[in-house]
Fold each of these.
Amino acid sequence: GMGGVGKTTIAKAIYNRFYERFEGKSFLEKVKEKKLEKLQKQLLFDILQTKTKVSSVAAGTALVRERFQRLKVLIIVDDADDVKQLRELVGNCHFFGPGSRIIITTRNESVLQEFAVDKIYRAKVMDREEAFELLSWHAFRSSSCPSQYLALEREVVNYCRGLPLALKV
């Protein structure tokens, strides 16, 4: 989905709500900005709770497959844009134990299609009412706007076109 629509926020909410149901968990943020070896080390540390030496990308991929095969894990891969990186980071569903969930956020839906994910959820921009309420909570710590700011609030909501990130900032 488009930038600022709330993909990361939704993924964080899912993670925070369900992580206790899993034997291992990891939230890998902004993966397109990070080197694969660093991401593999973080993933291994998050799940195994111990530092693991990763000598190469191939070795890291093998370690993930070998160590996580019997574990029920929750892994969030945030802001992915490279199928090759995804394959080397989380491989496929056979890398993980039964009940595991891998959630990927991306601006590029073709990455998900090429990676052959099971389901795609498309985050949508907010409708006007939701946008007004979000802006009011962030600006006034209330679900509604004081009357003297209604015209300004309308302008801001129109300008932001329902993008939650723009309304929050």
Amino acid sequence: MGGNPWHYFTPYQRDINEALQNLREQEFRMGRYGFDYWFNQMSTNMQIGVTLNQSNRPANELIEQYGSVHEAIEALLDQSMPDGTQSILDMTHVSNQPEDFAVCPLSEHEIREILQTTQPTRELIESLLLGEEAIDNWQPFEMFWDSIDRGTGRYIVLYQEGEPTEIFFAGYSFD
């Protein structure tokens, strides 16, 4: 198999690690992780009439069993290896450079080279890295996604009218 891509937008916070941890908790509580969830999302997007049964236990059961959200997520990560959770839950921290289980920023140079700006917007990310325009204008798409290894993630601070408004997290599952 290969690593599966994932991406998220979350409100901007100056502390990127805090934003990451808040997003991880949100996705955990909503049950948006695991291969079944990923496959069901992909089959819906591609209009395939097949779904898998969600095999994940509800978050509240895991929290009760392990005593805290943090411990429940850690246990879930241990149980899901070597493939990972196919989600942001696999990213445990922020790093200055690519490493397993971490998100790291794109450098200003990379942002300028890939997106042709130093203050990208959500609309730009959606069109060049996620949307149908990426098919016609494949170079930014390819440059960005090729900068990410399996089991790692990247992030970009997004702007609106010169002010940071969101953080875009993207990465690949381990397998």
Amino acid sequence: MALTATIYNFDIELADSDRGVYETLALRVARHPSESEEYLVTRVLAFALEFSDGIAFSRGLSEPDEPAISVRDLTG
């Protein structure tokens, strides 16, 4: 039987006074069976620390050449 991804829910109250970013984030993050919990939490922390318009998680382990998170603007 194939293993499937596990979905984790994160509710984050983001308050970064240095950047003036105040957001409520409700994230649903998939964890691949071969991904460690530490790596999952690291991805979520990086997402929160770098939060800005256009931020998104990559496809994960299926695209190993892409970063775990990236910010894209209107030009791509």
Amino acid sequence: MTEDSTNDSSNEAIEVSDIDASFSSGIAAFEAKNFKQSLQFLAPLAEAGDAESQHRCAIMYQNGLGIVANDAKAAEYMRAAAEQGHAIAQHGLGFMYMEGECVDQNAEEAVKWFTRAGEQGLVGSLTTLAMMYQEGNGVEKNMEEAKRLYVLAGFDDMVVE
């Protein structure tokens, strides 16, 4: 191993360590409700493609936590995390579409994102989907599908009429 490759390896290790420290610090600040500090740590990671950082930044931009609310940025980050398979971001994007918050209201898109999160076992998404099928919101009304989703979500006794 040459001296240059040794330095490259140690620089890479330091860089990974710095990223881990920034992520941990950003999450800790978020949980402590120090959103401005959290954004300082997580925004660069979100821009680099980290799904959890994108999800947390989306929440801060959506709700104006530590920064002026920015619907476009909130939707951009939520979508980026959701497209990487982040189940909670998929659920969040589903709600954005269902409620028309940060994006144009679109029940079909809501169903798509709740379905993706539900396929990962997210109970809230399964329950929301069940209600959408029960009410015919964004999908054709389908009581059998609603019941199936309630059962998957652990609500075996949900009455579906």
